[in-house]
Design brief:
Blueprint (H helix, E strand, L loop, with lengths): L22 H11 L4 E5 L12 H4 L5 E5 L6 E5 L14 E4 L2 E2 L19 E6 L13 E6 L9 E7 L3 E12 L2 E12 L8 E13 L4 E15 L6 H6 L6 H5 L3 E16 L3 E17 L2 E18 L5 E21 L2 E27 L2 E20 L3 E19 L3 E12 L3 H4 L13 E14 L2 E13 L2 E5 L5 E5 L2 E14 L4 E14 L16 E11 L2 E10 L16 E10 L6 E8 L7 E4 L13 E3 L4 E9 L2
Parallel strand pairs: 4-7
Antiparallel strand pairs: 1-6, 2-3, 4-5, 6-7, 8-9, 8-33, 9-10, 10-11, 11-12, 12-13, 13-14, 14-15, 15-16, 16-17, 17-18, 18-19, 19-20, 20-21, 21-22, 22-25, 23-24, 25-26, 26-27, 27-28, 28-29, 29-30, 30-33, 31-32
Length: about 650
Amino acid sequence: MASSALAQTPTVVVEGDRAARDPLDSLRQKTGDVPGATEFLTENDWADRRAITLKDMVDFTPGIVAQPRNGAESLRLSVRGSGLTRTFQGRGILLLQDGVPVNSADGGFEFNTIDPWLIANMQILKGANALEQGATQLGGSINMITPTGRDSGYGLRLEGGPDSHQHHLVRYGFAHGAVDGFIAATYLAQDGYRRNNGQESTRIAANFGWQTTDQFEQRLFLTLSHAEAQIPGTLSLAELAADPRRANPANVTGRFQRDVDLGRVAYRGTYTDGLSEWQGVIYASYRALDTPVTVAIQSQSRETGVRLKYGYGLRPNRFTAGLNVYYGLEKEKRFVNSGGMPTTAIVRRDLEALTTEAYAQYEHLIAHHTTAIAGLQAATVQRNIAQHFPTSEWRDRDFNGLSPRLGLRYDGEAVTVFGNLSRSYEPPTLSELSGGNGPGFNSLDDQSATTLEVGARGKLNDIHWQTAVYNSEIDGEFIILRQPDGSSEAVNANRTRHAGLELGAGGRLSDTVSFNAAYTYSRFRFRNDPVYGDNVLPGAPEHYVRAELGYDIGPVTVTPNVEWTPQGYPVDMANTLKTESYTVWGVRANWKPVDADWSVYADLRNLTDETYVTTTNVIANAFGNDGRHFYPGEGRALYVGISYRSR
């Protein structure tokens, strides 16, 4: 849990002039009102360290497991086991930037369009607590919020590290009367810890706002991203122990890499008065993908979407309703990969997705300090795949889901207690329904879950804390299995159970000492499966701990930290092959003179040069034999940066 992560425990008050409130304060308050586990993070939580992946942003949030792979921006991101076995890109979470979906219309999303340096705040709503964002996924939603011209002047940030690592930022913001604007650009390049591990990316984020009246704000967003990343691949445990820097020989021979270009434009209009709030978002995006891997993949996709939201009432009695419509069309070609070049055509197809979601939620004060919440969401989904080569075939699939939610929240003076019972719903993505690396189609059902959650959050002196326990009974969980030829296949499990405990705390122990700690317990298992019985679901550690202790020595803060996984976890559903436990130590130092506009930081990672597995592929049965299923973590590395921002 980041020290700024926990919203202050809300008290029962009636808000009058909502139009006059700061939008971020309002979002923080709404985050704290949710009857479930949430976080609200700020850029201070990742400002004094190397930050190139979502792991660097959310690692102190209990319940989230972020496991980088390939030493670059790609990772396995899982909230309470969502998308647990997805080892490429992401699913199971609604990922947003300024309320605009990063997800494709079918629910999948890319990681390498995101740079933490371009994000000012982050709202995390786990599971069905994300209903107010229209999220249907098991993992909930993560909304990343970029700065505006009203809270940002000009700035510069430079960072360097081993293996030719360089990460740079330039930003500028302005505000003149009713108009404001912000633009920032980042550049990231590195040779990488491993061989065949180079990376280079450039990203631009801009937004321009116009406060038309005291009640109506309009804002235009622009995102541009170009990313190139080599893919070193997986190793066996024996290879990893001998030389974790090596690459999978097949990846080197095939010159595996992933190049992605993205452009996205969005408009958001928000009207507020004393009682109601209307918000509309319209967006369009274009993505081009060129990735020679097991086969050479080339695709172009276009996405459009509309998000409408209405809120009425004064806290704690409040009504929210919304409608989301997403449409996407991807034109994809796959070829034989010969040394990184596409040769013989394998398959050509069009993949089309249309997703429509409608939701409503009502919060009502039913007793002193006690608020009841009831919500309902409906989703209708169309997936169409038209194969044009080597044969002409098509498949159309329709999915429909209904997700109710009930919750209670008790707001004490220093403690909030909450509980909720909810459903979540996820249809398969287009990549899971297609024939993958070859022609044909895959038959899948949808995934649904019933989740019970109880917990509490509060503040004790200068320490914020939060705890939650949950149990999810899942039907048809998507399992993504890596095949011997390097391709992946999606299957539905019969019944599975995700249960867990989340503990987080952070704050000041004295005038000069602060701390931050997060513990995640995850018990994910099959339930009476005809093949795997009650085996552990592969992909995530049962226990995961992150902790840090900060010492202020004048203008310098020194922060030792640790990442600890006390036991390994299986890579196969038969539970015959596991990773090993590991402990990774680090230390950061940040120097910021009083009243200065600049700061200098150093981030020393993996202090003892531990050799460890950061994530794995998932297979059906390893039969206890070592194999190339493991991604090594990075070794000892020192990153140094300087940051300047005008006030």
